[in-house]
Amino acid sequence: MSRVKAVQVSKPGGNFEIVERPIPEPARGQVRIKVEACGICHSDALVKEGHWPGIQYPRVPGHEIAGRIDAVGADVTLWKRGQRVGVGWHGGHDFTCEACRRGDFLLCQVGKITAISFDGGYAEYMIANAEAVAAIPDDLPADQAAPLLCAGITVYNSLRNSGARGGDLVAVQGIGGLGHLGIQYARQMGFRTVAIGRGGDKGPLARKLGAHEYVDTSAGAPAEALQKLGGARVILATAPDSKAISALVDGLAANGKLVIVGASPEPLTITPLQLIGARRSIQGWPSGTAKDSEDTMQFSALTGVRPMIERYPLEKAADAYQQMISGKARFRVVLTMVG
Asked: Do residues 173 and 248 lie in contact, with contact meaning Cβ atoms separated by under 8 Å?
């Protein structure tokens, strides 16, 4: 029996272990993917540290997966061997719950999560449900496609569903793994794009990414700076800092919306009065379905939006994860497979 290399975590808080496993076989409705690249996301800490209830160990992390279909299970008609595909956070849905019956598959009441419900992409091969698979455009390399399957889709999908229209002022808080993509998408969607970061040194990068304006939070209150620009129709909060996010609400224009994708466990400190008078709103946004991933990658290929990445071989997964979790990465870390 053929054996393949994978990087697993055997227990909550455990170290990454390089192991050899039997090559997995797809069941009915599943496909096997030969992994070419897998992005490392901050959410991988949920697996590494055991912060998500019910994870069964050992578990292979990784939910930003790009590769090719290697085998298909029974009843799979959409995918064929050799197709370039990816898998993101959303790992599948049941089609029958209340949310699915309304077509809102992302909010499936028993939905699966890649690398939490089943093994992910820190491996040479992985198994995925057919409905969770997204086609990758031919002109998008695997190592650039991988981060778009979580970081990319999260900011692209939230922006395109935010209600903002071309010419509206849209601010992106944070210039990190999510934010550096959010700035690019906002510019390419035709928004008057404002980047919000800490320190004047980030201004040149923000403008290189496409921002029309840069707001340095260390130079003054960011809400006041946004109001001087006319107020934001949408603020996309990508950095998981609840205090910093709370400080942005007064920068919204009338009917403005704060869209939060940076997950922080700390509470927001916002008063009802800040929302009521100007009819402002706050919305959280998760990632998206496989079709949303396809839209994200197609838009990226069309407009030239690309993640800034650092590459590591699979064997260096522990080093790659540390680079990400330490905050030193600029801006997404990607594992690449060889052979």
From this structure: yes
CATH of residue 213: 3.40.50.720
Measured from the Cβ of residue 126, the count of other Cβ atoms closer than 10 Å reads 27
pLDDT, tens digit (0-9, with 9 covering 90-100), for 205-237 = 999 999 999 999 999 999 999 999 999 999 999
Q: For the range 137-144, what are the long-range contacts, defined as Cβ-Cβ under 8 Å and sequence gap of 24 or more?
A: 137/297, 137/298, 137/301, 138/84, 139/301, 140/297, 140/300, 140/301, 142/36, 142/37, 142/66, 142/67, 142/84, 142/336, 143/36, 143/37, 143/66, 143/309, 143/311, 143/334, 143/336, 144/306, 144/307, 144/309
Distance CA 26, CA 213 (A): 49
Question: Same structural domain for residues 188 and 89?
Answer: no
Question: Do residues 131 and 280 both lie within one domain?
Answer: no
Q: Is 263 left (phi over 0), alpha (psi -120 to 50) or beta?
A: beta
Give one DSSP letter per residue of 230-263, joined into a string: T-EEEEEE-S--HHHHHTTGGGEEEEEEEEE-S-
270 lies in some domain: yes
For the beta carbon of residue 274, count every other beta carbon within 10 angstroms: 15
Other CB atoms within a 10 A radius of the CB of residue 78 amount to 12
88 and 38 within one domain:
yes
Total count of domains within the chain: 2
Q: Is the dihedral of CA 249, 250, 251, 256 positive or negative?
A: positive
pTM beyond 0.85, yes or no? yes
Are residues 208 and 228 located together in one domain of the fold? yes
Residue 2 — pLDDT band, cuts 50, 70, 90? confident
> Domain for residue 156, yes or no?
no
Highest mean pLDDT among 82-91, 261-270, 326-335 belongs to 82-91
Does residue 203 sit in helix, strand or coil?
Answer: helix
Instruction: Measure the CA–CA gap between 232 and 229, rounded to whole angstroms.
Output: 8
Look up the domain containing 319 and give its range. 3-149+288-336
CATH classification of the domain holding 130: 3.90.180.10
DSSP 152: I
Relative to beta strand 281-284, strand 252-260 is parallel
State the pairing for strand pair 84-87/65-72.
Answer: antiparallel
